[in-house]
Amino acid sequence: MRKTTNEYASLLNALIEIEKRLRMQEGRHGISSEEFYERFVQGQTADDAESVEWSNDYRHSLALRRELGAESR
Fold this sequence. Notes:
mainly alpha
């Protein structure tokens, strides 16, 4: 698997793009990203590249939400 780096104009733009990818995964698999992530960390899902990427996107979205929330104070 080839690692890629994306650059965004702002944290909000990054969050929007990641959320789009999360919605696509949710639609494809029929579960929320939160539910998927809980299963993933408990070892109840595959460790394939798609699952790892989905879990990374979910963690990244949480971090961006925290950061954006801190900036708005």
